[in-house]
Structure formats: structure tokens, C-alpha cells
Design brief:
Structural class: alpha+beta
Number of helices: 5
Distance between the termini: 55 Å
Order of helices and strands: EHHEEHEHHE
Strand content: 15-25%
Strand order of the largest sheet: 1-2-3
Number of strands: 5
Shape: elongated
Helix content: 25-40%
């Protein structure tokens, strides 16, 4: 059987288990002509166990208007804000400190994010996470 030809690749970030045909899902998928309600039902059932987090999804849309999707790990800033217990990062990260996370929390986030990062080792992944924390005004303590 021949492979289906991909006509579009759409990436969006949605609350886990709470996708609805309203924006951002409807506006992202509507122009491609796929059944938005089918996608919402499939996404919600796939992410039901992660409710309360944001789960990015990569949707491959084929020329016959069918689709398949891959869920990714939650975004690093979301995980850092959750670990630090803050609503948002510092408005001026060079001078302000929005919160702190421990190096153990950074390691835990790096282990969660490892499949989606371009790091070969956990130490390299931790450095990427620490860099994101620094750019958000979150201090990493030992």
C-alpha cells in the first residue's frame, strides 16, 4: 500500500484533555478541511491522564483529509513555573528574580523533556533547562 501524502503539518499547544473546536484548535485545523470534532475527541482521550498541563501536539494532515497526531512533552517554561510555584516569569530577568528551583527539580524536568530535546546526556539537558530558567528570571539553587 502506498504511503499517504502529507499536505500540512500543524503544531499547537492545548490544555490536556480539554480540546474544543473553538480557537486555537478550530482556527489552526479549519483551513485544512479535517473533521475538528474527531481530532478533539482523539486528543482528549489520548491526554486524559495529563489533565491540568499543556501538551503540544504535532498534527500530520494527509491529502485525503485524514490525520494523525503525536503528543509531545509539556513546554519547559510551563514545567519551570510549576516547579517554582509562580504564575509567570520575571518581567526583567536580568535584575528580577521571579522564583527559585533546585538542581534536583531541574534534573527531574530534564528527564521529562529528554525525548524532545536535542541533548545526548542528562547533564546537557539540565544545562538547557537551566538556561530557560535563567531567561525567565528563575534562579537555580543547589
Amino acid at each position: 500500500m502506498a504511503k499517504k501524502k502529507i499536505t500540512a503539518l500543524v503544531k499547537i499547544q492545548i490544555q490536556a484533555g480539554a480540546a474544543t473546536p473553538a480557537p486555537p484548535v478550530g482556527t489552526a485545523l479549519g483551513p485544512h478541511g479535517i473533521n475538528i470534532m474527531d481530532f478533539c475527541k482523539a486528543y482528549n482521550s489520548a491526554t486524559e491522564n495529563q489533565r491540568g498541563t499543556i501538551v503540544p501536539v504535532e498534527i500530520s494532515i494527509f491529502e485525503d483529509r485524514s490525520f494523525e497526531f503525536i503528543t509531545k512533552t509539556p513546554p519547559t517554561p510551563f514545567l519551570l513555573r510549576q516547579a517554582a510555584g509562580i504564575e509567570k516569569g520575571a518581567s526583567n530577568p536580568r535584575t528580577d528574580v521571579a522564583g527559585t528551583v533546585t538542581s534536583a527539580q531541574v534534573r527531574e524536568i530534564a528527564e521529562i523533556k529528554m525525548p524532545d530535546l536535542n541533548a545526548q546526556e542528562i547533564d546537557a539537558a539540565m544545562a538547557q533547562i537551566a538556561g530557560t530558567a535563567r531567561s525567565m528570571g528563575i534562579q537555580v539553587t543547589n
